[in-house]
Amino acid sequence: MAADQEETNVKDSARRRSQGLVGDTPGSELWQKRTAARAMLRAVNFDDEDFFKPIVSVACTHTNATPCNAHLDQLGAVIMEEVKQRGGKPFVFGTPVISDGETMGTTGMRYSLVSRDLIADCIETMHEGYLSDGLITMGGCDKSIPGALMPLLRTDAMGVMLYGGSILPGHLDGNDLTVVSSFEAIGARGAGRIDDDQLTRVEKNSCPGPGACGGMFTANTMSSIIEAMGMSVPYSAAHTAVTRDNQLSKDKVLDCVRSVDALFTCLENRITARQICTKKAFENGIVIMMALGGSTNAVLHLLALAHEAQVDLTIDDFNRIADRVPLIGDFKPFGRYVMADLEKIGGVPMVMKYLLSKGLIHGDCMTVTGKTVAENLADAPDPPIESNVILPVEQPYAGPGKHVVVMRGNLAPEGAVIKLSGKEIDRHRGPARVFESEESALDAVLAGKIVDNDVVVIRYEGPRGGPGMREMLSPSAAIMGAGLGKTVALITDGRFSGGTHGIMVGHISPEAHVGGPIALVEEGDIIVLEPGKRLLTLEVSDDELERRRQTWRPRTQQLTGTLKKYSQLVSSASLGAVTH
Q1: Of the candidates 505, 444, 475, the residue with the CA atom closest to the CA atom of residue 184
Q2: Is the pLDDT of residue 76 over 90?
Q3: Which residues in 499-539 belong to E strands, given as ranges?
C-alpha cells in the first residue's frame, strides 16, 4: 500500500500541467469543466486511468527525405513505448525538416536555417498547446538538433533531447567517405582531376544508410555540445544510428530507454532545462566544440540557445574560451576520423573526463540524469594510449585559439567566424572577386576563373538578405576539389557547412542587406585576413567607404510567406539569427 501511494504521489507531482487539460480530481469543478477534452481524448485511446498519468510530448522530427532523420520514426516508437512503461501518456508529433546536404546550392537551402526556428516554434506550440508535463525532442539533420533544444529552453520545460545518431562511413578504394566527399568530387571533376565514372563511384558509396553526416560536421558538433551541456544522456552523441545492415543500433535503442528514464528523473525532481543550461554549461559546450574541432555553425546555434535560456553569452565568449582549449580531435573534414571512431573509444564522456582532469570542464553542472557532470563522468573510460583519434592536450592537433576564431575589423565590425582547424594562416592578402550569390561564385570556380590569391566575396546571403543565410559548401568544396584550398580565400555574410574546410570566413556582420561594409566591396579591392590578430580588413580608406555608403541602395526582395516573415524578424548572425 505504501509503495502504491508513493507511485501515486510521484505521478501527481509529474502531471501538474496536464491537469489543466484533463482535470484534476473526479467530481471537482475543474474535472467537470474538462469533460469535453476527455471525451475527445477517449477517441484516441485514453482510458479512465490514463487521465491520471503525466502527458509527455514526443517531438519526432522524422522524414524519409533525408538519411539524417529517416529512422527517427523507429526511435520515436521505442520512446513512446518506454513512456507508457514508465506510467506516462505520450503525444507524438512531427516537424518540418530541411536537409542541408540535399538542398545545398539551390533556393531550397534558404529554408534550412529558417527551419531551425520553425522547428522550435512547432515544438513549443504542441507542448504548450496541450499543457504537457514532460518533453522529449529528437534531432538528426543539422537544424533539427538546435531546433529541438530551443523550445526546451524557451519554455524552461522538464525534458531531454535525443540525437538520432551518426551515419556509418562509406567506403571506397580503402578510404572512408562522407557526404562531403561527394561535394569535393564535384570540384575535382570540374578541375579535370577525376572522370565521370569516379564521380559516380563516390556518389554511390558516400552515404550507406540512415544517420547524420559522419564527420565532425554540424550535426555531430551540436549533438556533442548538447551532451556536454547536460541535456542529453551520456554517450548518446557518439552512438551511430544503425548497423551495417541498416537496422537500429542496440546502443541507439538503449539511448531511447535511458532518455525516458532521464525525463522521469527530471519530472520527479522538478529539474528544468534552464537549471541545467547555465552559463557554465554553455562554457562546457564550447570547450567540447573547440576540443573536437566542431563546426562554425555552433557559434550561431549556441548564441540562439543562450538567447532562449536567457543566458548572457556573446560572440566574444568564443575567443575567450578558445584561448585556453587546444584542438585534440582529429576528425573530418580536416582530419582523418569520423564519429563512429569516437564511439569505439568511449564517446563524448571519455573526452569530457579527460578535459575535466585538465581543469577545462565545469564538473559541478547539473544534467538530465539528476547527477552532476563529474558524477556522470566518474566511470567513463580514459583515452586509449595508442589511439590517434583524440590526442593529448600536451601534444594537440593545434594549440589553443587555433580552431574556430571570431574576427573583427572594418569589414566585419560586429564579427565574423573562421575555422582554422590548426591551419597556420598568418596572413592572406588578395584581390576581391565579388559575387552577389552562391550560384554565380560556384560557376566561376568550376569555369576556372578563380586563381591563386583571390578572395572570393559572396554577399547578400545573410539571414535577412538571403534570406536564410545559406551554407556555401558548394563553392567552398569546389575550391578544395580544384586544389585551391590553400591559396584562395572565401568570405561571406552567409554560412558554411560543418563539412567546409579551407580559408573560409563566414557570418560577416553586419550583412550586406542592411548596408554592412561587405556591401561596399568592389571587384579588385584588396582584402586582408589576419587570423592571428583576429582581423578582417578591407584596404579602402574611410573616406572612400563613406562615399560608397552614400551611393549604396538596399536591394529589393520579392518575398512571400515563410521567407518574408523570417526576413522581417531575424536578427544579426552575431546575435544568433534569432526570430524573437
Answers
A1: 475
A2: yes
A3: 503-509, 526-530, 535-538
Task: Read off the pLDDT of residues 255-273 as tens digits, 9 standing for 90 and up.
Answer: 999 999 999 999 999 999 9
In single-letter form, the type of residue at position 90 comes to P
236 is catalytic: no
Nearest to 365 by CA among 492, 452, 279, 468: 279
**Which pLDDT score is estimated for 15?**
78
SS3 content of the chain, % helix, strand, coil (to 5): 45, 15, 45
Residues 497, 509, 567, 574: which is the catalytic one? 497
**Residue whose cell numbers read 467537470:** 32
* Residue 530 CA: distances (Å) to CA of 451, 522, 526, 571: 20, 20, 13, 27
What's the CA gap between 261 and 267, in Å, rounded?
10
The CA distances from residue 261 to 12, 54, 159, 256, 351, in Å, are 17, 14, 11, 9, 24
Q: How many C-alpha atoms does 111 have within 13 Å on its Cβ side? A: 15
Determine the pLDDT at residue 86: 97
Matching residue, cell 556509418: 168
Number of residues that make up the chain: 580
Q: At what angle do helices 218-229 and 144-154 cross, to 10 degrees?
A: 30
User: For 17-24, which contacts have Cβ atoms below 8 Å and span 24 or more sequence positions?
Assistant: 17/55, 17/131, 17/132, 17/133, 18/54, 18/55, 18/130, 18/131, 18/132, 18/133, 20/131, 21/55, 21/130, 21/131, 22/51, 22/55, 23/51
Q: Rounded distance, CA 403 to CA 487, Å?
A: 19
- Strand blocks (E) in 140-236: 159-163, 170-172, 175-177
- Residue 572: which of 453, 413, 462 has the closest Cα? 462
Return the pLDDT at 513: 97
Give the pLDDT band (50/70/90) at residue 221: very high
pLDDT of residue 298: 97
Instruction: In whole angstroms, give the CA distance from residue 486 to residue 479.
Output: 9
Q: What percent of the chain has pLDDT over 70?
A: 98
* Distance separating the N- and C-terminal Cα atoms of the chain: 50
**What is the tens place of the pLDDT at every residue in 408-433?**
999 999 999 999 988 888 899 999 99
Residues 243 and 169: beta-carbon distance below 8 Å: no
User: 93 - beta bridge partners?
Assistant: 59
Q: Please, is 97 exposed, middle or buried when counting C-beta atoms within 10 Å of its C-beta (0-12, 13-18, 19+)?
A: buried
Please report where in the chains the cell 573530418 appears, as a residue. 332
